[in-house]
Design goal:
Blueprint lengths: L4 E6 L4 E6 L9 H16 L5 E5 L11 H4 L4 H19 L7 E3 L13 E3 L5
Parallel strand pairs: 2-3, 3-4
Antiparallel strand pairs: 1-2, 4-5
């Protein structure tokens, strides 16, 4: 896992929390994207996890894409990067297909990425 994204599992409750920790606003760069992908894969296949919470902090989930990262990229490189980000958020959105309860904080989700709250199925 990345030091910017980590999966914490509370085995007593079965809750997995994917935490973003990229101060100041959790701008999503390549390392955060890769960390989210790894955490989502791990949460998907961990039978101890019955619910998943995405957490970026008390004030904001994520600011969105890291604009500074884009400055040195060609349009083709950015299209590739955007495709990767979209596939990661689709993977996170796919938690809804698991027989688990999945929740997202009620505020701070980047527009057009994942639902604010989704029920994946009956809670275990």
């Amino acid at each position: 896992m990345s030091e910017l994204v980590r999966l914490e599992v509370d085995e007593a409750t079965g809750v997995g929390t994917i935490r973003l920790d990229r101060p100041k606003m959790n701008a999503i760069n390549e390392e955060v994207t890769e960390g989210l992908a790894e955490a989502a894969r791990e949460a998907t296949f961990n039978d101890k996890i019955k619910a998943v919470v995405l957490w970026g902090g008390e004030k904001i989930f994520a600011a969105g894409a890291d604009i500074k990262m884009m400055a040195d990229r060609t349009p083709a490189e950015m299209m590739n990067r955007i495709g990767m980000m979209q596939s990661v958020f689709s993977m996170i959105d796919a938690f809804r297909l698991l027989p688990r309860l999945c929740e997202w904080p009620e505020r701070g989700i980047p527009s057009g990425t994942v639902p604010r709250r989704a029920v994946c199925g009956p809670p275990a």
